[in-house]
Amino acid sequence: VFTRSQTPFFVLPTFWRYYSATKDLDFLYRAYPLLKREYQQYWNAPHHQTPVGLATNRDLGDPRLSPELASEAEVLDWMPVFGGDVRRCVPVGTNAGLVSYARVLSRIAKEIGRDDEARTFAKEADTRTALINKYCWNEEAGLFLEYDYVAQKQLPYVSEFAYWTLWTGVANRKQAARLADNLHLLEKSHGLACTDKDYPDPHTDAAYELKNSAPYRRLQDLPPQKDAPPEYIGGRNPLMWMYPAGWATTQIIVTAGLDAYGYSEAAKRISAKYLNLMLDQHQKTGQLWEKYNVVDGSLILPNARYGNLPYHSFTAAAVVLLGRRVFQNQALQTV
Q1: Per the structure, how many domains does the chain have?
Q2: How far is 144 from 175, CA to CA, in rounded Å?
Q3: Is residue 146 domain-shared with residue 6, that is, in the same domain?
Q4: Are residues 201 and 115 in the same domain?
Q5: 201 and 62 in one domain?
Q6: Residue 77: domain span
């Protein structure tokens, strides 16, 4: 039984772009009720709602993990930026993704002649955008930060999620300018890091215990795999998506967002850095990888939960899209 989903951003680059390329109206008629059901009955279900009107992330009962870790796996598992319990937060990435989801639903509804529903979804996107700005924008920092609605305060972590607001159109022009100015916080020699620095793990020891099984052991307490290549060895920290790691999807999202707001030089610069990193490591190893060390250009991430793994999926997509951005000067699209 599935007890959680993942960050709702796939509808943005898939369904609408497929329709834009094919004009397959029958596809929209078939997809629309399914997308609407996920948006309304899952992402806007009671277990995702909060008193501030934005969504949280929450698992429905994975027996293998503590509730806070299982819920965080619905965003990116695991990160320091939610202060140890994402259920207390209204994640910027999740809510930015839901803004784009509602806007795509609005477009589809309009395309198939359901104008009332199109207006409803557009209004929901506008409302969520306003709430993200109210609770997550920090004018002094010039960044979107995670908001703990229980403590009623923003959390002091700088992460890639601030820039998802460009990709989804949540940021206004002034905010986009501030974000562009602050890009240096995440931009390293070989691309964008998931966070600006290596943060301590905010999760409690109790979070790493299974509810119905033996205690979960932190990987740094386990002996390293015999004769494992150095890039496979992580384990100093149970966290994963954190400095100095850079994720291919981050580069795609931020590049597309920067292009959308007219920051083409920054978009091309970041694309070139990460593309060169992927190609360099492919030449050395014959592999694409799940993540890369964007500080020193290596594959070694000693503070990651399980080190590194050969990987295609998003990384292969990044080679194609960032390659087009660098060599064909083809701006990445948002919607």
Answers
A1: 2
A2: 9
A3: yes
A4: no
A5: no
A6: 1-184
Strands (E), 127-202: 137-138, 143-144, 147-148, 153-154, 187-188, 191-192
Portion of the chain with pLDDT greater than 70, in percent:
93
User: In whole angstroms, what is the distance from residue 207 CA to residue 180 CA?
Assistant: 36
Average pLDDT over residues 209-235: 62
DSSP helix/strand/coil, 118: helix
Nearest to 275 by CA among 330, 335, 214, 206: 330
Q: Which two tokens stand for residue 260?
A: 């959308």
pTM equals 0.94
- Is residue 70 within 8 A of residue 6, CB to CB? The reply is no
Nearest to 52 by CA among 161, 132, 124, 120: 132
Assess whether 330 and 208 both reside in one domain. yes
Cα dist from 310 to 190, 199, 228, whole Å:
18, 25, 14
Sequence letter at residue 41? Q
| Ranges 6-20, 80-94, 168-182: which has the least confidence | 6-20
